[in-house]
Amino acid sequence: MRLNQTVIFFLFWVTIAVVVGTLAGKSKPSDLYEQKIEQRLKQLNKPAVKSIHSPDGDIINCVRINDQPAFAHPLLKNHIIQMRPKSYSIRDKTGGNKADIIYQLWRTKGECPENTIPIRKITRDDLLRSDSIETYGRKSPPSPTISPTINHLQHDQSEVHEHACVYVDYGEFHGSKSRISIWKPEVLMTSEFSLAQTWVVNGDWDTGLNSLESGWQILKSLYGDNNPRLFAYWTSDSYQKMGCYNLDCPGFVQVSRDIALGAVLISISTYNGDQYDFQLTIEKEQETGLWWLKFETHLIGYWPSIIVPKLANSARKIAWGGEIVHYPIGQGTHTLTQMGSGHFAEEGFKKAAYFNNIQYIDTSNHPITPFPQNLEAIVSRPECYNLQVGFSRRWGTYIFYGGPGRNPQCL
């Protein structure tokens, strides 16, 4: 009897050991998810020649220019990088880079070597904040509800976009130029954002809107903080699957080693204090079909028109202004997220955010100043965020825009 008990006891523990060993050999769901995260990070972050640790917590990787994400795009497999525009009409207006001026925080800690470009490193935390690790860097797929200003963005019933913008429409345009003041508005929730940007648009919603966009934004779900950052975005299918922010997918070709898309801007305007702005230009080169993005005198890079085919000849619409997104949870609960400086347009200089020297670029690549009466304006909810258009000899055509969001008149 004692022998049988011993045998049974032995067989019991052997069985347990086999089961445990079998289970140990299988990947747990959490392990599989971690593997997916690691694979996605490897896909997004290209090998770095050098890494620079920015004071804001970002890591900027200096990646060989030929290893950048753009060339994973199927239409850019054999693309030859163009370091400068061939057209003198674009090249001459760059005026040479002012190397002694530092515009972004990471540059206080170093610079990228020749033949490399700076790319903000994407972290595990960045992926975990996104709705999906597969769609990181893309805007949420929107519904066909379209803003009359910029054919843009009412994603769903829970996500509301509000604008204070001016625009020119139904033309043939080769780009946009303006100076954009830099502010740090309060953004209430991680999933909300506030931005100032220009849109260069062609096509329509049903057959695939093509849009090139750039400016500054605060978007904690993408970057992890509430700092204003220089950004770029593109879409060729009405914000569905084609396109992304910055270099978060193949498409935009970067040539600058001094400016990092998605990196923190170093100078921020203060209420009734110092004001900071930057000149932003998006301009098409007709000979090559490249849409160049310029920050001040820096040629950051370009979007080849082959990835935005409805912009192959020209843009139909150009817009300038502010936008916020929020998630209302019921009546009387408009977001406290601010636009611009967080103050209304009528407060004016040093208190409200602005765009000045607003110009569109015609098909001869000449910058044209539209008169205020020739601009269309849209203000989604003027009691929350508003806009004023003006003209002066120093500022050309300009707008003041913005607001605090929720207030006694904005509920």
From TrEMBL:
InterPro entries: Glutamic_endopeptidase (IPR053168), Neprosin (IPR004314), Neprosin_propep (IPR025521). Residues 1-24 form the signal peptide. Keywords: Signal. PROSITE patterns: NEPROSIN_PEP_CD (PS52045). Residues 149-411 form the Neprosin PEP catalytic domain. It comes from the Eukaryota. This is Protein neprosin. It comes from Cardamine amara subsp. amara. The lineage of its organism: Eukaryota, Viridiplantae, Streptophyta, Embryophyta, Tracheophyta.
